[in-house]
Amino acid sequence: MNHFQYRNGALHAEDVLITQIAEAEGTPFYCYSTATLTRHYQVFAEALSGLDAKIFYAVKANSNLAVIKTFADLGAGADVVSEGELRRALAAGVPADGIIFSGVGKSQEELAGAVERGIHQINVESQPELDALSGVAKARNAEMDIAIRVNPDVDAKTHDKISTGRQEDKFGIDIADAVETYRRAADLPGINPVSVAVHIGSQLTDLDPFRMAFTRVAELVRTLRDQGHTITRLDLGGGLGIPYRDEEPPLPEEYAAMVRETVGDLGCQLAFEPGRMLVGNAGVLVSRVLFVKLGNSRRFVVLDAAMNDLIRQTLYDAHHDLLPVAQAPSNAAFEPADVVGPVCETGDTFVRGYPLPPVITGDLLAFASAGAYGAVMASTYNSRPLVPEIMVSGSDYSVIRARQTYEELLALDSFADWQQDDPLRRRSIG
Ligand SMILES: *Cc1c(COP(=O)(O)O)cnc(C)c1O
Fold first, then answer.
1. Which of 61, 32, 36, 31 is nearest to 276 (CA)?
2. Is 323 in contact with 368 (CB distance < 8 Å)?
3. Residue ending a domain, choose from 219, 243, 277
4. 184 domain residue, yes or no
5. Helical ranges in 51-177 per DSSP H
6. pTM for the full predicted model
7. Which residues surround ligand 1 with Cβ inside 6 Å?
8. 178 and 43, same structural domain?
9. What residues make up the domain containing 369?
C-alpha cells in the first residue's frame, strides 16, 4: 500500500500533483511520501508488538536526513554502516544509544567515533575487528556492548549481489566458529559480547531462509549460555522484500510469527534493521521523455534520467514499474518500449519491451518503488549533477536535497599545483 495514486487521470504523491513538482523543480527528481513511510513503519512496529523489540532503520537504504528524521520521530533507532551514516543518524535526531554500527570493514577512526559517542552496539564481523575494537575501547576506558555477526550459511534465495548469509559471502563469522570467537571475546578488555547478530540478505520473498537462520542462531544462543556467556540481545537484521512486480513477500505479521516461533522463548531483547521494506515503495523517480526513437524493430524511449540516478536495473537486474504521470486513456494501445537513459553505456537501459502507451517528448514517467537503494546509489557519471529529493506530506511538498549545480559539480575538482598559473600555489619538494 502506498500513496502514489491516480486522481482524475493524473499521478499524485499524496495530495500533490507530480506534474506540479516537475514544473517547479525540473526533472529528474526523487519524490517520497511521508504517509507511506509512516504507514510502513507502523505496520511493522505493530506486527512486533508484544515482543521486547526495537526497530533500527537501516540508513543505507535511504540516508536523506529528512527520511531518517521521519523514522526517528516515530521512535526508531538507526542501523549504520559508516561514520558518514552515523553522523547522518545523529544529525537527524537519533540518540547515540539508539544506533547500531554494522559492516564488515570499520576503520580505527570509525570504531573510535562510535565508542566515544557511546552508541548502543557495534556489530563485529571478524576476529581482527574484535581485537581492534578492544584496543580502541580499552584506550578510552570504555566498555562497548557488541554483537558478533554470525554467518549461518543459509541461501537467502535472492539476487546474488544481495545475498549475505552463505559461507562464501564476506559477511560475519562462520557460525561453526562462533563459540570459539565468543570465548575469545569474553577475555578481551573493553568489549561486552551481549548479542548475536545475523543478516542473510536483502529482498527476501520467502520466510524459510529467515526461519533456518534464526533457528541456528537460537541454538547458538543456548550453547553460548551453557558456556557461561550472558546473551541478553539478538539482532535479526533486515532483508524483508517488497513487491516490485508480482512478488508476494511475507506479511509483517507472518514474519513476526516466525520470529516468535524461532527465538521468542530466549528472553532476548530483539533488534530489527529493516531498510527496503520501510522506504522502497515510499518513493518514485520522476523523469521526462527526451526523445522517442523508432528503430526498425524497436521503440526506444530516451529519458532524462539515467543509470547514474537509479542503478538498480543495471546492477541487480531489478525491475521498476513505469507509471505515465498522465494516466493513459482506457482505450490506449500499449506497445513494447525499450526505456533508456542518455548515459554512454548499453547498460544504461532501464527496461526492454515494457508495455507503454504512446508517449512523446516532454511526457513524464515515474519509476515506482524507487525509495530504497535509489538516490543513495546515485553518482555523477557522465558529469550529470545529482538529482533533487523531494518529500511530500499531505498537500505540502518540500525539497529535502537540492539539485546539484554545475558549479558545485566542477568545484569538487582542482588543478594540480603545477598546473596553476600562480607560481605561489606550486608546491615543491625539491
Ligand atoms: C543492508 C542491511 C540491512 C537492511 O537490509 P534491507 O534489505 O534493506 O532491509 C540491515 N542490516 C544490515 C547489517 C545490512 O547490511
1. 61
2. yes
3. 277
4. yes
5. 65-73, 83-91, 108-117, 127-139
6. 0.96
7. 58, 60-61, 79, 102, 199, 202, 237-239, 273-277
8. yes
9. 4-31+280-411
